[in-house]
Structures are given as C-alpha cells and as structure tokens.
Amino acid sequence: RLNCIEVDDKLVAEKKFYSAILSILFTNHYCFPSILSAEEVYVNAGVEILQKTETIYRSYIFDPCLKNVAKYLRRTGHQITFLPGEIELNAITKQLQQSGMKDGRYHYNADGVFHADEFSNIEILLSEVSNGYGSNSNGKSSFDHYKAMFGMLAMLRTLAQKYSKGSFDTFRKLKVHFLHGHGDAVRHWSMSVQAPGVFVMNKEQRVEVPVNFFEKNASLIPFLEFYSTVAGACAETVETMGLLRAEHVSALRKTTKTGNLTSIVNPVIIRLNEGKHMTIVADEGPMSIPGSPNCDP
C-alpha cells in the first residue's frame, strides 16, 4: 500500500499555513469561518488559562503552531513529522550510549521534536516550554536552555556520524533548531559547527505570543512571520542534509580515502539532571549576545 503525499503549490501552501496559525487564535465568531479550530486562544482560553500550567500553554499555543509548520513543510515537499509531548530525543540517547551510559535512565525527553522522515527519522528541531505563559522561573528556563544545548550538540554529532563522508564545507552550513517558550515570548535558537570543535548557538529570532485580542493588529504579523521563518529554516536544514547525503554516497563509491566528519564534529555531551543541575545553571542563561534579535535574557 502506497502512502500518498499531497504537495501544494508554494503560494497555496503558504495560504493554508497562515490560515491554520490564525485559527489557533481565533474562532469563527470573529473571522475565518472555514478554518474553525479546537484551539481558540482568544475565546476558549486567554491569559489566565495559559498561565496555569506548561501543559495548557503547550496544548493551546506551542503544539498547534509546530504541527502546522510540519504540515506546511510536507505540503512543500519536505517530509517532516512533528512529535508532541514528552518525546525521547534519540540523538542524545545514542550519544550517551556510545559513551558507555547504557542505563535506561540516561535519556532526554523534549516537549516536541521534528523528525526528517526521508533521513531515517533524524531529529532536526526540538522544543521546550518552561512553565505556563508569563512565568519567569529563571531556574527552569535556564535548565531547559542548557538541556536543549546538549540536545542540539547530540543532533549535530548524530548527523555527522550518519553522513560521515560528506564535506565539512557543506556540514558547516547545516543548522539544527530549538524553540523555547518562557516568559511571554518564544525564542528560536540554532546551532551549527563553524570550525573543528567550534559550535555556535545563535538566537535567530524572538516573538511575543499574541494572547491579547485587543493588541492583535500589532502582534499577529510578527507571530506569523516567526513561524514562517522557522519553516524556512527547517526546509534549508533538510536541503543541506540532502547535499550531505549525496556527498556521503559519492565518497563511498570512490577508492580514494576521504575525510571523516566524526573526527571534526565530536562535542562533549552531558545528560543534565533537573534536581541536581537546575540551581547551578539558574543564573547562567539563557543569555543573548549583544546585537542578536530582540536581545533579552
């Protein structure tokens, strides 16, 4: 039995994407009668509800937005699957096992993950939500930030092992991604390898979550643009992975010796423990470098 994948024209896919993101916030009481959604922030939730727990915040905002990013990517030919919930990050489990940590307790559960289906389900994005909307728990947000940092290091290492014969020139163009919700905003971080042993974690963008209906005219467009940029960044990641795979396959067919990415992309990966490490990292981040988008803690 063949699985049929619907691929839309890019403009059609973009229209569906923007409509779907808007439907997370609106009901047909206000507009968009054809895209009624179960997640209706302005009518069924509001700030008071979103502030209650991390799970509520994720259910109303984070998961629906990422689900629609994945749908958009699939409609434009990039086979991405979004897994919500406490999802084990396979990359860090693999790297810890290779380091001798084979106990089942040594793993990382992310709040959400993007898998690249065409590349053996390798992970390219993870998400974390640190408490309910508006929470300023520095300990939790810092812990999630550093936990995700090691998650991204593991993702890059896993990609380097998978396509070890690819060129470093191509690999350094590759980015993996992290979406982090804390306070009243969502941050989009990326990580790449710019030189042997040099890993760069960069805040690509930040957007406030438009929870106030009366401020919608000022806040909706940046919110839409934020997730559109996330989708574009993930598409670029998948396309770069395609180039790496082609280089890897080509190198395997040659008799001459080629370089090996695993010797270049070899970070130290630590499995953080919330009970042990949260107070240690509470005052250490997340911090943005001067000049990064909407610089903030």
What does this structure look like?
This protein is α+β, with helices and mostly antiparallel strands. It has one domain. It is 44% helix and 18% strand. It is built from nine helices and six strands, in the order H-H-H-H-E-H-E-E-H-H-E-E-E-H-H. A six-stranded mixed sheet has the order 1-2-3-4-5-6, with helices on both faces. A hairpin with a 2-residue loop joins strand 5 and strand 6. About 4% of the residues have low confidence.
N- to C-terminal distance: 50 Å
Instruction: Tell me the domain tally.
Output: 1
Put simply, the count of helices is 9
Question: Which strand order does the major sheet show?
Answer: 1-2-3-4-5-6
Q: Outline the biggest β-sheet.
A: 6 strands, mixed
| Percent of sequence in beta strands | 15-25%
Please bin the fraction of helical residues. 40-55%
From the structure provided, what is the oligomeric state, counting identical versus distinct chains? single chain
General shape: globular
Number of strands: 6
Low-confidence stretches: 28-39
Given helix and strand content, the structural type is alpha+beta
pLDDT average, as an integer? 83
Radius of gyration: 20 Å
* Series of secondary-structure elements, N-terminal to C-terminal: HHHHEHEEHHEEEHH
